[in-house]
Amino acid sequence: MYLEENFKDNIVHWFNNNQRSMPWRETTNPYYIWLSEVMLQQTQVKTVIDYYDRFTHRFPTIADLSEANEDEVLKYWEGLGYYSRARNFHHAVKEVQRDYNGIVPSDPENFKSLKGVGPYTQAAVMSIAFDHPLPTVDGNVFRVWSRLNNDSSDIKLQSTRKTFEQQLLPYVQEEAGTFNQSMMELGALICTPKNPLCMFCPVQENCEAFDKGTVLDLPVKTKNLKKKTIEQSVFLIRNNKGQYLLEKRQERLLNGMWEFPMFEASNAISEISHKLKHDIEPLPEHIFKLKHQFTHLTWNIKVYSVPETIDINEKVLPDNMVWFDLSNRDDYSFPVSMDKIYRFIEG
Ligand code: SF4
């Protein structure tokens, strides 16, 4: 499938004149381009800009980031969500420092072998930073390409991704980074999911879906399975100095982040009592509730106050628990749900 000769010229010309200004577009530093691509996964540009600025200010080089401890890295990621991205990126940057003298490998296979680098990140960073002929296929490109070709293949299928990558290969033999960004920018600004601006589209003359009137039927994507919902109980447990108990999550979702102790509701009281080796008796009614959505799952969280205060001198805490003074908020990275609970307590 090869669109008319002028397709690439049209889209690249439009991009060169209409692209949004973003800090990572002002640099050729592959570390910064890589960071931006990681932050942009599942997150909007306008949210990422501040995080990107703060992160690059604090960790301006690969060496700086590789020396940082994970808690601090997570702190700079706090609120962006999908924290495994941060942990994998940190891990991969350490690999670059150790195995490649702190220089991001320009060989696509070497780059792909780093932790957390999947086919999309590989193609994006390698094409934008080094002009390697690799097409990026993200949600925007799936939509644009399906429409341009009036292609109703299911974009949830791996085989569709493979086919699209093959079809896009001829366009990335030169100016790969610019072409890839043109496609993604067109999807973000013009060829949007619900109200595409076909009248202002630079590639309307190349678009089969526009021709056939099928734009809003594309792309085709089979429905997600229903999200799982988990009922969670959070306990606000204080010591006799007014400090709150926090637990660091380990080897599970949101690994490395801090939380007020939280357990699945069905056996929450026995779990926390077992962990503390102390019978915990929360008030029967929750004092606050919230819902937290992940891509694949929803947490319904109820927060319970525990009236008894624990004597700090008598209780030895497990390794992953600490007493937390509310004024030391900046020392801990909280996922969004825990930050909401913190704000509730702080009033
Ligand atoms: Fe998308 Fe419309 Fe442009 Fe086709 S003409 S690429 S559907 S914006």
TrEMBL record:
It comes from Staphylococcus pasteuri_A. PANTHER family: ADENINE DNA GLYCOSYLASE. Belongs to the Nth/MutY family. The keyword 4Fe-4S applies. SMART domains: ENDO3c (SM00478). GO terms for biological process: base-excision repair; mismatch repair. Binds 1 [4Fe-4S] cluster. Pfam families: HhH-GPD (PF00730), NUDIX_4 (PF14815). This is Adenine DNA glycosylase. Its EC number is 3.2.2.31. Its cofactor is [4Fe-4S] cluster. It is an enzyme of class 3 (hydrolase). GO terms for molecular function: 4 iron, 4 sulfur cluster binding; 8-oxo-7,8-dihydroguanine DNA N-glycosylase activity; adenine/guanine mispair binding; metal ion binding; oxidized purine DNA binding; purine-specific mismatch base pair DNA N-glycosylase activity. The gene is mutY. The keyword Zinc-finger does not apply. Residues 39-189 form the HhH-GPD domain. The lineage of its organism: Bacteria, Bacillati, Bacillota, Bacilli, Bacillales. Keywords: 4Fe-4S, DNA damage, DNA repair, Glycosidase, Hydrolase, Iron, Iron-sulfur, Metal-binding. Transmembrane segments: none annotated. Adenine glycosylase active on G-A mispairs. InterPro entries: A/G_AdeGlyc_MutY, DNA_glycosylase, Endouclease-III_FeS-bd_BS, HhH-GPD_domain, HhH_base_excis_C, MIG/MutY, MutY_C, NUDIX_hydrolase-like_dom_sf. It catalyses: Hydrolyzes free adenine bases from 7,8-dihydro-8-oxoguanine:adenine mismatched double-stranded DNA, leaving an apurinic site.
